[in-house]
Amino acid sequence: MDGKTKNRAAAAPPPDGGRPTLKTIAFMTGLGITTVSRALKDAPDIGAETKERVRLVAKQIGYQPNRAGVRLRTGKTNVISLVLTLEEEIMGITSPMVVGITEILAGTQYHLVVTPYSSTKDPLGPIRYILDTGAADGVIISRTEPHDARVTLMTERRLPFVTHGRTEMGIVHPFHDFDNERFAYEAVRRLTERGRRRLVLLEPPPNLTFHSHMRTGFERGLKDFGAEAVSFHHVNIDHSLVAIRDAFEQLMRSVDAPDGIVSGSGSGAVALVAAIESAGKKVGPDVDMVTKVPSDFLRWLRPEVMTMYEDIRLAGRELAKAVIGHIEGKPPETLQSLSQPEFQRPMSKARKV
C-alpha cells in the first residue's frame, strides 16, 4: 500500500456499522465506487494493476460483499448450503467434508452454510426452506436414497444441487460417491486371504443407496472367494455405538460367531473391537476385521484392524466443484465422480527401547 493510500486509510470515514464497504475501498484507493465494484468482479475493461490494487486493499481491510445487496442486484445469494444429519457428525464426516468444500469455495464468491437436521424428521424440510426462502444458490445433500424425494423436488424446482451418493431413479444429476461395492468386495478378499470363512457385515441402513452397493460387493466377494455369510441384521451403522457393541458382543458369544468382520463405519469398528474383547476374544488371533475409515486414528490405536481409507476431504472438494458446475449450467453427466478405497498398510510398531 503506497503512502497516499495509507494517508487515506488513516482519514477514511468510519464504515457503515463498522463494516468495510465499497465506499471505504474507493476512498482508500482514490477510485470511483463503480470502478472498485467492477474491479472486484474482474471486469475486462478494468486494468490488471487497478484490479490488483483494489483486491489488496479489500483483503487488508477485511472487505466482504453485502449479501443482501448482492441478492437485490443479482438475485443470487452466493451461498452454498450443505445439508447434513446429526448421524454424519457422529460418524466423523462433517469436519473433513467442510474443509474440502471450503478449499474450493475459497477461490470463488460463494460461502458455505451448514444446515443440520435429524434423520428422524422430514428430510424434505430443509430443502423446502431453502426453496421457499431462496436461501442458497446451490445445495449439497448426503444420505442419498435410491428414490430420493429431495432429488425429485430440487430437479422440478430447478435448484442446482449435488448428492453425496447416487440414486436409482432415472434422473441424471451431479454426484460424488465412494465405491462401497468395491470396498466390501476387497474386504472379503483380504479376510479370506487370512483364512477367514464365516463373515459378517456391519452394513448401512437399508433405506440408503450405498446399502445395496456394499451388500452387493460383500455377497459377490463371498461367492468369488468361497466364504459364507453369518446372518446379522439387528443393528446397522446408524445405531448408537453402545447398541452396536452390545449386539455384537452377543453374536461373538454365540455358536454362530464369525471369524471375519467387514465394517461399513470406522466409528462402528471401535464398538466392534469393544464387543470382541468383552466376549473374551481378540482381533487377530480369533477374528479379523476390515473397516473403512475417514482418518488414521483407528490405525494408530488398533493396528491389527485392517483399514481402507475413504477420503472425505476429497469428497468435499468434488462436491463443491460439482455444485458450482451445476449452478453455471454445465451438463450434470459431466459432474459425476466416484472415488476408490485405498488399502492402508499396518502401522509399523514402535521400536522397543
From TrEMBL:
Gene Ontology MF term list: DNA-binding transcription factor activity; transcription cis-regulatory region binding
Keywords from the UniProt entry: DNA-binding, Transcription, Transcription regulation
Location of region: Disordered: 1-21, 331-353
Keyword DNA-binding assigned: yes
First and last residue of the signal peptide: none
InterPro entries: HTH_LacI, Lambda_DNA-bd_dom_sf, Peripla_BP/Lac1_sug-bd_dom, Peripla_BP_I
Keyword Transcription attached: yes
Ranges of residues in domain HTH lacI-type: 20-74
PANTHER family assigned to the protein according to its UniProt record, in alphabetical order: HTH-TYPE TRANSCRIPTIONAL REGULATOR GALS, LACI-RELATED TRANSCRIPTIONAL REPRESSOR
Name by which UniProt lists this protein: LacI family DNA-binding transcriptional regulator
Lineage: Bacteria, Pseudomonadati, Pseudomonadota, Alphaproteobacteria, Hyphomicrobiales
